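Homework help thread (please don't just give me the answer)

Our assignment gives two proteins as sequence + structure token strings and asks us to describe the second one. The first is just a warm-up. Here they are:
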Amino acid sequence: MTQYAVLIYERVAPEDLPPEIMAAHEQLPQRISELGAREVAGLALLPPETATSIRGDLVTDGPFIETKEVLAGIFVVEARDLDQALAIAKMTPIVNGGVEVRPLLGFQVAEQS
């Protein structure tokens, strides 16, 4: 199976997400499994104000790209093809934003030394 990253963009801060959206996020791995795919990993990001960007030697506070939507989280799925990955991405609970799907060259968890 091919791995895809699903990037979640929201205009609503994570702490302001309605409980039903948070519950839907918690149920998403099971729903993905029911489609015959698998969620490999997932993570939520703190608000963009906590980001630090680096451009060459310049280090600045804030996200690299500023938009109305912010990158709120990412999850990685194994799906048989792009169509299945898109079907999974469409199930992502969103309040006011969208998702982006990108095929991955490879996803590995670094071993701790």
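The one we have to describe:
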Amino acid sequence: MRPALFAAAVALPLLAAAPARAADPVTVTIVAKRFEFTPKEVRLKAGQPVRIVLRSEDVTHGFFQRELGIDAEATKETPAEITLTPAKPGRYVTICDHFCGSGHGNMKMTFVVE
């Protein structure tokens, strides 16, 4: 058997047996600015990995959502990155958990997992 033919005969069964590649994460960018997150709502799919990039345009902002396991902080100089795979459909309200001024209490956004 020729070397190239032998290599193909060995490699093809190995490629066929390789596990399926996990889905690439979807990237969502969220901008925090006194006193709002933009966008205010993001739709995700259960089981789909997502990479969230949180950028701040002014001061330090927190980004917290217990059920999705999100607890991050972004400054104007340093964005935060969170990677997660939401498991369960639902509406998940995320809040700023670092006091950022008088409108801080209303700084929220929602992940809708379908």
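TA reply:
I won't write it for you, but here's a hint about the kind of observation we're looking for: DSSP finds one helix and nine strands in the chain.
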